[in-house]
Please model this.
Amino acid sequence: MGDLFGFTPERPYAARLSTLIAHDVAVWDVCACAHRSGSLDSAIDLDSVKANDFASFYSTHTGIGMICFNGAKASQLYRTRVMPTLGAGLKGIPSTVLPSTSPAHASVPYEAKRSAWQIVRMRSSDAAARL
Model:
């Protein structure tokens, strides 16, 4: 996000959030909590997954125009744990799976990841243009 919106990890957290909000970007994990042994998504104990309450999030943030998943596992968890809890209108929000930003996903070079993630910046520019 920093590369896309011009901030570094050293910038205070509140300032990074303000920048994302100013660009109409929300960042939220699919999982509210889960157990995993290690740092890989493949290590997530699926029986322990508790999804975040997206229905409430969407009712508060009605302008969501696209969901971008940080890797295939996030998308899969959203489809299996969140989609069944949503009303029909919310199931139609467009989505795309982007390459995981995790260093463990090293098979995709950083520049290719950054290029794919440009869709977030483009979509935020589209949202700003509609205002």
